[in-house]
TrEMBL record:
Keywords: ATP-binding, Cell inner membrane, Cell membrane, Kinase, Membrane, Nucleotide-binding, Phosphoprotein, Transferase, Transmembrane, Transmembrane helix, Two-component regulatory system. It comes from Candidatus Methylopumilus universalis. Residues 233-436 form the Histidine kinase domain. SUPFAM superfamilies: ATPase domain of HSP90 chaperone/DNA topoisomerase II/histidine kinase (SSF55874), HAMP domain-like (SSF158472), Homodimeric domain of signal transducing histidine kinase (SSF47384). InterPro entries: 2C_sensor_his_kinase (IPR050980), HAMP_dom (IPR003660), HATPase_C_sf (IPR036890), HATPase_dom (IPR003594), His_kinase_dom (IPR005467), HisK_dim/P_dom (IPR003661), HisK_dim/P_sf (IPR036097), RisS_PPD (IPR032408). It is found in: Cell inner membrane. It is an enzyme of class 2 (transferase). Its main location: membrane. This is histidine kinase. The chain crosses the membrane at residues 12-31. Residues 173-225 form the HAMP domain.
Length: 438
């Protein structure tokens, strides 16, 4: 549901608050239910005492003095006594739970024949019947009201809930701290960086989690170092015979093997290029320090250098003022050289580079008018050893070009996307978070 927050802290606080509110309501209802019986018992006992004293008083008086006694008793306090008559209309009792319990207790004490009504003849009060010989009477007492709503309980409940939420917040924050450290460390691992060891928490579960992650990161680092060493060794060992082959080719007579020599030189160059790509991918780009660079100047200079290679680049920018960005100059240049050279492999004449400043990012697009890529092939192209050339009808290369480009982009905290243009060609877009401008 969209109304449920995503963070553990917010969900934990909502859960605690909900549980506390339910607990408070249930507690009030339970207390009210079990407290109603003793209160009804006390009220019934008081009414029984009034009825019995009134009955005894009337029995003890002479019959010719009873009406005078009734009149005198009715003028004292809030108690009223009236004679009852047969065939009176008896109104049904109001559906009040507390009053129902009082009536039940009164019938237990005064007998099942006792009649109890309220507001009889429009006179407010609780009317209780009793008999003396063949005569029936009513004792009218003020209607016992239910206990007022305990607003002070709500106040205390709010205080308890507030303290509990503060405690829940402190607990959730305590849980979030090691989790945030773990999330940050995994983000660094995802970018190809190896984070510092997580501190071991005093809580056993978090301690085991941090220790396990540290061991995993250390194992990954060891594997990465071994992989770099292995590929560096392979690169070194392969380049030695390649160098010998290149020297041997140079020594071949021109008349004997002109075509063969050219073909062999091209093969050696391609092998050397593949080895360089391997080393670039393994070595990474996080070691190079960053430098504040004017992006407009960078791409203008890049355009001029490619012009010497007969590359016709059209550069379009919506940035009218100098905009500076922290880049790793060598790898950043390698990133766009790679993408531009690849675009010219399929372009029919020119490549378009656009530089746009958005609200919170800078987007750089390299657009060609080549054949594009089947949509189902786009997702796999950023994986190592997946060839974009093959997807566009060429089987050369080792498939590391775009993987290297993506790693360089990630080292600049950016994102690389690939999409087909609306009419024809391919667009490779680099999105960098906007940091500063002047």
């Amino acid at each position: 549901m969209k109304f449920i927050p995503n963070t553990l802290l917010a969900r934990f606080l909502i859960l605690i608050a909900t549980v506390l509110i339910i607990a408070q309501v249930v507690s009030i209802r339970i207390f009210d239910y079990f407290e109603r019986g003793p209160r009804a018992e006390a009220v019934a006992q008081e009414i029984e005492t009034i009825v019995n004293f009134t009955r005894v008083s009337l029995i003890s008086s002479r019959e010719d003095k009873r009406l005078e006694l009734l009149s005198e008793l009715s003028t004292k306090g809030d108690i009223r006594i009236y004679p009852a008559y047969y065939f009176e209309d008896i109104e049904p009792l109001a559906p009040d739970p507390f009053l129902q319990v009082i009536v039940s207790k009164l019938k237990e004490r005064l007998g099942e024949n006792t009649i109890v009504v309220t507001n009889h003849y429009g006179i407010p009060g609780l009317w209780v019947s009793f008999a003396i010989d063949q005569d029936e009477f009513w004792v009218v007492i003020p209607t016992p009201g239910d206990r007022p709503f305990p607003w002070h309980w709500i106040g205390w409940g709010i205080i308890v809930a507030g303290l509990s939420i503060i405690g829940a917040y402190a607990t959730a924050t305590r849980i979030n701290k090691p989790l945030n450290l773990l999330i940050n460390a995994t983000e660094q691992l995802k970018k190809g960086m190896f984070p510092e060891k997580l501190p071991l928490d005093s809580v056993t579960e978090f301690q085991v989690m941090s220790q396990t992650f540290n061991e995993m990161a250390e194992g990954l680092n060891k594997v990465e170092q071994e992989r770099k060493l292995l590929l560096a060794g392979i690169s070194h060992d392969v380049r030695t015979p390649l160098t010998r082959l290149r020297i041997a080719i140079e020594m071949l007579p021109e008349k004997i093997a002109t075509k063969l020599k050219k073909s062999m030189e091209e093969d050696i160059g391609e092998i050397d290029s593949i080895l360089n790509q391997f080393m670039d991918y393994v070595r990474g780009f996080d070691q190079e320090s960053k430098s504040l660079t004017n992006l407009n100047d960078f791409f203008s200079h890049l355009k001029e250098q490619h012009k010497m290679l007969n590359h016709n680049i059209v550069f379009v920018s919506n940035i009218k003022i100098p905009i500076f960005y922290d880049i790793r100059p060598v790898s950043f240049r390698r990133l766009f050289d790679n993408l531009i050279n690849n675009a010219f492999s399929y372009s029919n004449g020119e490549v378009l580079i656009t530089l746009k400043k958005n609200k919170d990012s800078i987007s750089i697009s390299i657009l060609d008018d080549g054949p594009g890529i089947p949509p189902e092939e786009i997702k796999r192209l950023l994986k190592p050893f997946e060839r974009m050339d093959e997807a566009r009808g060429n089987s050369e290369g080792c498939g590391l070009g775009l993987a290297i480009a993506e790693r360089i982009t990630q080292s600049h905290d950016g994102k690389l996307t690939i999409s087909n243009r609306a009419k024809k060609g391919l667009e490779v877009k680099i999105i960098l978070p906007l940091v500063s401008e002047s």
